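Support request, please re-run this one:
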Amino acid sequence: MNDETITVVVPFYNEAKYLAKCIESVIKQTYTNWRLLLVDDSSTDESPAICKFYAARDKRIKYFRFPHRGISANRNSALDLVDTSLFTFLDGDDQFESIFLTTLYQRMQETNSDIAVGYVHGYNSDHDHYYDFGSKNIDKVKIKPWYTPKEWFGDLFPHIRQVFWTPCVKLFRTRVFDHVRFPENQVVDDVYTMWKPYFNAKRITFVNANLYQFEVHLDSQSRSSATTIAHPYEYIEPVISLLSILGVPIHYFADQYLNDVMNTNRDALSQNNLFADQDTKFKQPLLLKQLHWTPISDLKANDEQSPSQSTTSSDD
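Re-run finished. Output below.
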């Protein structure tokens, strides 16, 4: 099975706390024909020393250091270093399960797919606590051996949102990243990018197994302040446009788009983003009227009101 070399790409910046375990999770893979690219965005902590330690002991591990330009530029630099036909991303604070590469490679071979996608579970190392991200809900879905891109967007997206947009938890044929790069100067670059490789694939396969450990950072202040930034509504507009042209049902994407528009509208002024405030105020009523959609937050608010307090208007 180990006849193809798989490149594992780890772009990182100041991940000294987690990096050793990240690297060890690659070394412990049951699939042994891999090479590991540690791509440093000019870390200022002990990360370089950790990388050099492992690179000196395993010739499959290579360390690269680039000027600090942010995660998007660092990912692009890493992509330019990939010279194998297969590769995967791993964040510097996360870990592979030991069968990650074996499982996804085997499924890719069995189905002749260009992308193999696994599932993820969360872990907080400070509290030694695991988090279930909804894999039990997927158990209720009949998973096909493989999907065309249109089927992938139309059939499976609503059930695997947790792993749909991330570049991690996937094994790629390198060619699906032809003409695909991450936009620089975007806080969350993956959501602007990760729908594109799916369209470059002929087949996509999904393995409903927790193959990847995602580090959950319990920083409530940063999580709340990044709510809108982490889900900018603009990223999904080209996706919806392209899906519509291809005749793929867009109901689930439209719901997510409306939810992101409403979240942006809620927070835009506090983030001094006047354009987003006005743009979402223009789009929100149009979408609400077209989709006949009631936000979950409004449903909960109505449930908390007494019948005499509840009001309904179909014209607003």
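The beta strands are 6-12, 34-40, 61-65, 86-89, 95-96, 115-124, 129-131, 170-173, 204-215. The CA atoms of residues 55 and 61 lie 5 Å apart.
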